[in-house]
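Can't attach files on this board, so I'm pasting raw text. These are the components:
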Amino acid sequence: MVAAKLTPMRWPRQWSDAALLDLLRGTPVNYLLVEDGTAAGPLRTAAESLRLPVTIAGAPPSGVEMVQGDWPGTKAMAPGENEHMAAGPTGEPWIDSNGWKVKLAEALHPGSEIWVEAAPAAPRLYPESYVIGVADASAHGGCWVISLDDRLAASVAAHDTAALATWKRVATAAGFFKDWRWPGMMPAALIGVISDFTGDNEFLSQELLNLLARSNQQVRILPTGKVTAAGMAGLKAVIYADESAPGATLRKMVADFVERGGTLVAGTKWGHAAGAEAGGEPHPRYDVRVQGQGRVAIARKPIDDPYLLAQDTAVLVSHRYDLVRLWNGGAVRANLSSAADGKRGLLQLVFYANAREGDATVRVSGAWRTAKLFTLDGAEGRDVPLVPEKGAAEVQLPAIAQYAAVQLDA
Amino acid sequence: MSELRTRRQWICGAAQLAGAGVLGSVVGRGTDAPAAPVAVARCRTYSSPELLAALNRMFDQIGGLGRIVRGKTVGVKINLTGAQHYRLGHVPQSETHFTHPQVIGAAVHLMGRAGARRIRVLESPWSTADPLEEFMLQVSWEPRDILGAAPNVEFENTNYLGQARKYSRVLVPHGGYIFPGFDLNHSYTDCDAFVSMTKLKEHGVTGVTLSLKNCFGITPATIYGTGAGEDEPTELPRGGRTIIHSGARQPSRSAPQEQDLTTPRQAGYRIPRVVVDLVSVRPVDLAIVDGVKTMTGGEGPWGRGEKSAVSPGVLVAGTNPVNTDAVCMALMGYDPMAVRGTPPFETCDSTLALAEAAGIGTRDLRRIDVAGGPIREPAFDFAALRRQRRNVSAKG
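---
Top answer:
Structure tokens for the assembled complex are below.
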């Protein structure tokens, strides 16, 4: 994961006066997207004097891949409504996150910067939701195109105190990711998803990514034509999510992965799997066979439910190997990465609810000895309690809003 | 400990219950309801040596484990209430609202040593058909410690059909307060002895949750859950047991339906009765209550009100669940003879009273032989904390 070189912002329609560029002074915004060319003329001139590139929205600069995202957050989330999210022995709230879209775009367009653009959407428009937008994209390796709704844009232009405070929070959050403290960290992953992610495969494969992220599984995306043995290294399992049968080369690579101890989860099109039946109770939906040191799980019926596929895969792999477990996280997404030498880890947490009750605990796989917490205010990290476990550590977090980066050291 | 009630007070209490329609048609069976010894032991930690010694002594005090489990398939219903993602603060679930795995392991070990042929650890974890082991792993338990505690130990998730071809139909001998019968996972009928192994806790609806209330969780959510099928059970469980809580809808039509749809649609009326119906169809042969560490203010971290992790340092075991729960209530500072309107049953009926009236067991401490001596004071005064919470709440 690298720091984004550019911090883009969609220039609000209401900001007709180029003098409003002053609002960008001292912020990390260094690229403007405007909605149409005619209005952009005077703005472009003024912006260029500030060495601020301007381009038409929809035509991002070379090296940038634009993702059309969702305004992130929980369903029916509005200020004051989420105090009771943890008030019941219920399942987790549904989260709209662009994290998996960023990762998919990164996998399909390696080397590109990934920008996420989403129109501000009610009822999620309140100060924290802008910060969540920035954190959601950035924590997954992308960059949020800062976009203000009409009301906020007008209020900022009018120098309304509350609006300026919101604007400052957004800029501070973007600055946190621009001044990235942890260059060179590599995403950690347990499960790989193989698909071409298009056409007939689009729904199942992309929803699978969404749902695996929902359960905070750490996933590596393996586009069908780009799968290599090295690309599967370190994974416990791969899911072959395409409807069509795999090509011979891919089949051989996956077979080798299984021989070395990996698990393949696939639909009926993968075809019959040889090998002895795996021990234990038979799986209700998969024929599980042992091949070499690994296992092949072939669905007995065509897979059409990505939720079930995500759940079944987590169990077929076993939660024993979870890289991240969270308690009291509420509406949260976790993204784990680590240094090449394995001596440092970075867990990024995005909290999507406006308000949270209870302090989260997170268990991170690895022999970590210290944990330091960083938040978007840019302050220096502070030590947080860490309880070592066998092969893992539990980190006790205080109540945190929107985002936390937990630096783990071995 | 509150003063023990006289028989006259019990009769008055029963009359009040009957007058309020609490006991229904089964009233009157309670006066000679069975009584069996209950063992109480101090146990300050979850260390294996301390647990094994305490449980071993307790099982001897209640007549020996061998007579309950020898040569038998034993079903052990543990308590893993709520979703795996909730903790009370940073405290692990096993120290607040789940039966502790060390208690499970120690009891399983002793059952194996006492000659159990097969031990099946059972629970219906929140909204999932995943193997029980996987649920345990998600709360950072090591299921192998339990599986390896004795020969032939198995797990089964009973929240759905599980490993059987069909659900087991069981009918309530006394006719049932709410349901005449249930369709359950096979594990509850395929065992020769049934153990309710739970946590010493209060409960937001039923006042307390002990070995009786633990049996609420034997119902599969595929039939009795929020997402249950209208006609047939769903393949997978979804959601909690709202059907039983609220009575807003009936279980899947394939299962026995409620007898009287005019009864109150209130959880405080319904849950205690359904629990008694369930304990009637699947009698408890051994009740084990883990009060070494637990929580106050509710059955889990969710819901309103102040909650805290506490360490009563006590284990309770008995062969009769009503007797055992009565002793537990006394150890919590509550009067087991309490009726609706009095702590901890301010807004619900007493599950113990209903179970007693159904003839399952007495809650009258005078009739229960408490091994380890009479209860002179609570192991932990839940009742005092409850009064404080309610005073603060009333002032607020």
